[in-house]
Amino acid sequence: MNIFTLLLFLLLIYQFIKFDLKKIYKYLLMETIFFKLFCDIGLSIDLNFISFRPYEILLYLLYIISIYIIITKTKLSKKQMIILLVLIALIILNNILLILNPLNYKTVCLPYLWYDYFINNIGVSPSFNRYVVIYDGYFILFFLTLFAIFNYFTKKEIKEMFKKFIDISFKILLVIILAEVVIKLIYGETIFYQIRDSLFGVGADTSSILERGNLITIYGLCTEPSSLALSLFYLSLGILVSDKNLINILKKYCVIFIIGFFTGSMLFYLLFVLLLFALLCRHIRHIIELYNKYKNIFLSIFIILSLCIVVFLISNTGHYYIMRLVNIVNILLEGKMDFNSETVRIYSSIEMIKIFFMRPLFGAGLGTTYGFSSLFSLLSNFGLIGIIVYTMGIKISLVNVNIKKIYYILLVLLVSFMVHGSINTFVFPQAIYIVMLILYANEPEVYADDKEVCYE
């Protein structure tokens, strides 16, 4: 057991002794989401037959308390019960089809990953195995947990919880990143990873030093730079919907862009474009007002940014990113198949789409095919009917949400689901965060000065 795990257990013991059930559940929920987004490294428990990351310990505790709350504190509504029963029936049917009529197509299926496919030429057809059972359980437990949260807490309490989570997470993230940069600059990258691994343990996919041109690559406490980039994206959306001060949002976005730049992740730049689109949709009128009020400042910023972009493009790091863009073009136009990040993401997405069209209604089976696109992975695993049931389960928790009002949030999330993640995105703690984000985004916009937004 590593140092961090010991501290985590002490924290949990303190919370269970000190607080009542509602506070325990509240803190456990926030901690589970935070650890998944910003502390997804190492192993807390590593035995011969089983291993757990820090967030998994919290997540399984959250599952247990959620079931306890449903049994003793609050009952499922009729709609929730129907969704749950339909989901279970669909999973059973999905498994029967997988056993009796499996898809005869070799691709990447758990437990194998894309490294095995490209390097070791391992491709297998979807089949019923323990991973199918595990993901069946994940989907059922996700909805039980979601229903418990929305039944046990009022929407006001959930929104307050979300706001507090965003504020605390941003501050803790700054401390983590600052500590990483200082240690790397003073002692070097190798020392940083030695310290990190001694504190948190080393998991099977814990990353070590990764070259990004001549950039000091920032990981935070995530397994790789793209994981941190994705977490920054989720945090930024949370800031956008929860902060009422436009200037504060712009300041925090500048900080997040700097952090994201030093992740060295191509994914971050695409996600940041989506963030800017969401920002414009939410605050376009007030941004125009700011521009008209501070034209000279905006012009100066534009000139400085343009010069920075030119300098960046002619630097070694800029050359590194240009070569990655060229690689993406080669993959799309020429079918280039070298093993690298771009190839895996693009090719795995195409594979998931192919499998979906082979089994459009029910998919190949939950927990079978594995790709690096959340949406296409869910389609290939669960099919159209599965997505409809999943969406209905989310919708009944978000009563009276005005879809037209938050179209830009949903659109940005949808595009992001196409270019990152896996099926895990829809069942692990980030899925609960996304539902809370959508709930908060629907908050009535009655703010400070002109009853819409404060930007001073």
Structure report:
- The longest helix has 33 residues.
- Strands 1-2 form a two-stranded antiparallel sheet.
- α9 runs antiparallel to α10 and α9 packs parallel to α11.
- The protein is mostly helical and 456 residues long.
- The chain contains 17 helices and 2 strands.
- The protein is 70% helix and 1% strand.
A few lines on this structure:
The protein has 456 residues and is mostly helical.
Write the layout of secondary structure elements.
Layout: H1 3-18, H2 21-38, E1 45-46, E2 51-52, H3 54-72, H4 78-100, H5 114-119, H6 130-152, H7 155-187, H8 189-200, H9 225-242, H10 246-261, H11 266-293, H12 295-314, H13 316-334, H14 341-358, H15 374-395, H16 407-419, H17 429-441
Antiparallel strand pairs: 1-2
Helix pairs in contact: 2-3, 2-7, 2-17, 3-6, 4-6, 4-15, 7-8, 7-9, 7-17, 9-10, 9-11, 9-17, 10-11, 11-16, 12-13, 14-15
